[in-house]
Amino acid sequence: MVPAPAQTxxxxxxxxRLLNPERYAADFSKIINEVLxxxxxxxxxxPEVRVEVTAVNPTGFDEPKPRTVSExxxxxxxxxxGFEEL
Length: 86
Fold this sequence. Notes:
By secondary structure, the protein is mostly helical. It has helices at about 25-40, 65-75. The longest helix is centred in the middle third of the chain and has 17 residues, at about 25-40. The radius of gyration is 20 Å and the shape is elongated. It starts with about 25 loop residues before the first helix and ends in an 11-residue tail after the last helix.
């Protein structure tokens, strides 16, 4: 008799996706509905979501944009944030 193959037990999901700049909210909503909610619905699951934002403007950001965005990032408790000169 041939033993039955062992069933794979998946214990971690990971994924990354670049969102369309013309429809961030719709793309993020789909991720919430189609990935996060099904995962969060499994007893014992601890979902962790990280958001990374990168924005490049070749001519530079005019004042007061850096101050405003930095203050908002601070208020929203970003772990890291800042502007750079390239």
